[in-house]
Protein: tRNA(Ile)-lysidine synthase
Amino acid sequence: MLSAKKRLLQFIQQQKLLKTNAKVLLAVSGGKDSVLMAQLFADSPYLAGMVHCNFNLRGEESARDEAFVRDLAKTLNMPLFFKSFDTKAYADEQKISIQMAARELRYQLFEDVRATEGFDKIAVAQHQNDAVETVLINLIRGTGVAGLHGIKSDRQHIIRPMLCFKASEIEDLVQQNAIAYVEDSSNASNKYFRNKIRLDIIPEMEKLNPSLIHTFQENIRHFAQLEELLQQQTDLLKNTIVHQQDNGIRIKIEDIRSLQPQQLLLFELLKPYGFKGAQVDDLLADLERQSGKLFLSPTHCLSINRGYAEIYPLNTKAPESQEIFGAGSYHFGDATISVSESAERPKNLKDKNVAFVEAERLSFPLKLRAWQKGDTFMPFGMRKLKKLSDFFVAEKIPLNHKKHIPILENGNGDIIWVCPYRTDERYKVGAGNKKIFIFEYRK
Structure:
């Protein structure tokens, strides 16, 4: 045990997982991995406490696990924090799987205890075999290069100090030191995806390479370095070819064509928006098509529009409509329309952020609203009505931006101003001094 504890402490120092005299919260289920972790942290330079979740999914086993962890905490003289959950009810309420529900509840509790009790880090007992399982799962599911680094030893407040051990080494330590633990019967079932990997696939791979876990650990280190290089290149591209716009981003098609390697780099740029590798292939095949081509991810829409690939969130709501009763400031999303009065005809009519309208032409209350299908107005300088949708196309206004443009509507239903793009010809200011309303657009 002394050599194992020394190995654990060296790994913590090498990976810079904990500072001297740090407080660490140990996630202990009662299984051999987490129990050994607790034993190794006992009498360590760190101030350790334990946290346990009872998900009430395995009847008497769940109660047995909780009782075992309570006794273990007393034996090791560590404070214990625990909570009992109705996991099935939570899963039904959130419309997620039991496994996902347990994961969410587990990490919510860990973080709550860490924050309220002043722990620096949360330690979970994942080991090298778990890292290999994760890589295989990611390869099967297709997560790209980022999925090949396995499990990182430190991410935000979560650390994994047991990554210095293989599962077989943990088994040997537990047996040699007669360490008691409880067995989760669900670990023996291969109905779960990860269990299939652990129980069926890895043993077959180890027949081909008995040093499989060690080999994977070496590869994982190389993959992590490759990912770091790729991330540096991706960050550079984000700062050079990705342009922010209202509610989304845009990338020039010509910049996409110049990417090398094209598919890999474009996938890394689009992955945060939920797009898959196959969609990137389709996009690259459709770059020459006309504007209007759409690609959908679960969270975002990508459109090819006038030489750009534009990405914006799905289901973004238009700002609430506002009624205007007179002078004052009115908000529409992140835009503000200030309304004031003047007794004189303005001398400068060229500022596109300001609209002037004769008071006698207005029917209050006016309205600030989003555009609606079928909207028409008479753009300043024209003599006939134009569909607002056609006006947006002519002005090259991105699809996702349209619903956030304030439309100033008269009480009679006429559109007075498409802020700040164009006023309506019918509402231009005539000659002579008349009472004028001044509308100023700010963002």
